[in-house]
Amino acid sequence: MTTLAITDGRVLRPDLTVAAADVLIDRAAGEILEIGPDLAGEADETLDAADSLVTPGFVNGHCHVAMTLLRGYADDKPLEAWLREDIWPAEGELTPEDVRAGAELGLLELIKSGTTAFADMYFHVPEVADAVETAGVRARLGHGIVTVGKDGEAAREDAKTSLEIAREYDGSADGRISTAFMPHSLTTVGGEYLAEFVPEARDAGVPIHYHANETADEVAPIVDEHGQRPLEYAAEHGLLEPEDFVAHGVHVDDREIELLAEAGTGVIHCPASNMKLASGMAPVERMREAGVTVGLGTDGAASNNDLSMLDEARDAAMLGKLAADDASAVPAEAVVDMLTRGSADAIGLESGRLEAGAPADLAVLDLEAPHLTPRHDLVSHLAYAAAAADVRHTVCDGNVLMRDREVLTLDEAGVRERALEAADALAGRVE
Ligand SMILES: CSC[C@H]1O[C@@H](n2cnc3c(O)ncnc32)[C@H](O)[C@@H]1O
Ligand SMILES: [Zn+2]
């Protein structure tokens, strides 16, 4: 057994207390062996965490990681116009190589900001999976299905692709990659395809992930056409199971919150995307009070415009208070819980907590910074004051992905150069 010790840090425990301790990791198993004093002597390798906070690696519960190529490409529009006028035409030009370049850029950003796991919906998933395997993070990946505007054959092909990808890649990259069946949303995938393919996804044993209740404009047609709220419609189509998770959940009423809580279906709150596209304010406090598992996600870099989960945490706290008209709503502890355990639980991963037996997925944040001084409360700092640049080490599955701010699994300069080239060529093709 080879071991790694994270030494002399302050460790964020599952009960959200902080203790001075070392973390001893079994590298081959990718698991935490022990958290306690003076473990450096038992380790083959050490990672210094003096003056640092050791936290579970952040879990990004909803992303389109390759959309980094479209960062800044189209801003300041609402969802529907943004997708139809700008994003979908550009995505129509993306090659598998572009998606690989965009995914690597996004993964670089995730590792540099302390994220060790993410859920991703996109196309050209083999390229995303390959990049994830190289980068060393954990991911739940899926091919996003859109059937509107397609003939029956093309629509069925898209759904079949999602199922095949989910079957083929589940458990790949030494178990770091898991998958899901991913209909894009309840309005962009026809009910007949849900009826045909959801039972197959259940047979394949993979969860289902989709955008839901993101904008008021997306809710209205479902109510008009089916006489049901979107999540009632989703339940009727077998899309609300404990392993499933929905992105956004902004416009949910009391009955839908009850349905989510009863079903155990997770919600990934994406506050930055919801603010930028002016989609609305999710009732996070009410969902958490009702017992819904709530996690956090960035959504894609084209609607955010970065992939920092620490930014997302701060946004969730701020927006949650505004939505509830209550400064005590969505407090720091709730936000840190959503950033780590909440997202992990929602997307069906064991990570998100630092304790013996848990996956060795963690981030180490440098506390020696003016904006993290003084240190009354480190949970408060994580929720409100820490930033991506404070992350000094990132570890996933027992492997050091970034040491002292140097990413070890990806060549940063090469990744940036390939992404720049791909983005410029893409913009040229779309014009
Ligand atoms: C078919 S792959 C996924 C698909 O989703 C698009 N997308 C990005 N952000 C959002 C969002 O906030 N709501 C709905 N759809 C979104 C992305 O551009 C891909 O086309
Ligand atoms: Zn999305």
Essential attributes:
Urease, subunit C, domain 1, binds the ligand CSC[C@H]1O[C@@H](n2cnc3c(O)ncnc32)[C@H](O)[C@@H]1O, metal ion binding, alpha/beta, binds zinc ion, single chain, 18 strands, 5-methylthioadenosine/S-adenosylhomocysteine deaminase, 431 residues, TIM Barrel, five-stranded parallel beta sheet, 2 domains, globular
Uncertain runs: none
Q: Could you give the distance between the termini? A: 55 Å
Ligand names: the ligand CSC[C@H]1O[C@@H](n2cnc3c(O)ncnc32)[C@H](O)[C@@H]1O, zinc ion
What structural class results from the helix and strand content? alpha/beta
Itemize the secondary structure elements and their pairings.
Blueprint: E1 3-12, E2 18-26, E3 31-36, E4 45-48, E5 52-56, E6 58-63, H1 79-91, H2 96-112, E7 115-122, H3 125-135, E8 138-145, H4 152-169, E9 177-179, E10 182-183, H5 191-204, E11 209-212, H6 216-226, H7 230-236, E12 245-248, H8 254-263, E13 266-269, H9 271-276, H10 284-289, E14 294-296, H11 309-324, H12 332-347, E15 362-366, H13 378-385, E16 391-396, E17 399-403, E18 406-407, H14 412-430
Parallel strand pairs: 1-4, 1-5, 6-7, 7-8, 8-9, 8-10, 11-12, 12-13, 13-14
Antiparallel strand pairs: 1-2, 2-3, 5-15, 15-16, 16-17, 17-18
Helix pairs in contact: 2-3, 2-14, 4-5, 11-12, 11-13, 12-13
The structure holds the ligand CSC[C@H]1O[C@@H](n2cnc3c(O)ncnc32)[C@H](O)[C@@H]1O and zinc ion (ZN).
Short description:
Pfam families: Amidohydro_1 (PF01979). With 431 residues, this protein is an alpha/beta fold.
What does this entry look like structurally?
- The protein is of the alpha/beta class.
- It has 2 domains: 3-56 and 353-405, Roll (Urease, subunit C, domain 1), CATH 2.30.40; 58-347, Alpha-Beta Barrel (TIM Barrel).
- The protein is 40% helix and 22% strand.
- It has helices spanning 79-91, 96-112, 125-135, 152-169, 191-204, 216-226, 230-236, 254-263, 271-276, 284-289, 309-324, 332-347, 378-385, 412-430, and strands spanning 3-12, 18-26, 31-36, 45-48, 52-56, 58-63, 115-122, 138-145, 177-179, 182-183, 209-212, 245-248, 266-269, 294-296, 362-366, 391-396, 399-403, 406-407.
- Strands 1, 2, 3, 4, 5, 15, 16, 17 and 18 form a 9-stranded mixed sheet that branches.
- Helix 8 links the parallel strand 12 (245-248) and strand 13.
- Helix 2 runs parallel beside helix 3 (125-135) and helix 2 crosses helix 14.
- The longest helix has 19 residues, at 412-430.
- The chain is globular and about 65 Å long.
- 57% of the residues are buried.
- The mean pLDDT is 98.
- Bound molecules: ligand LTUXU72L and zinc ion.
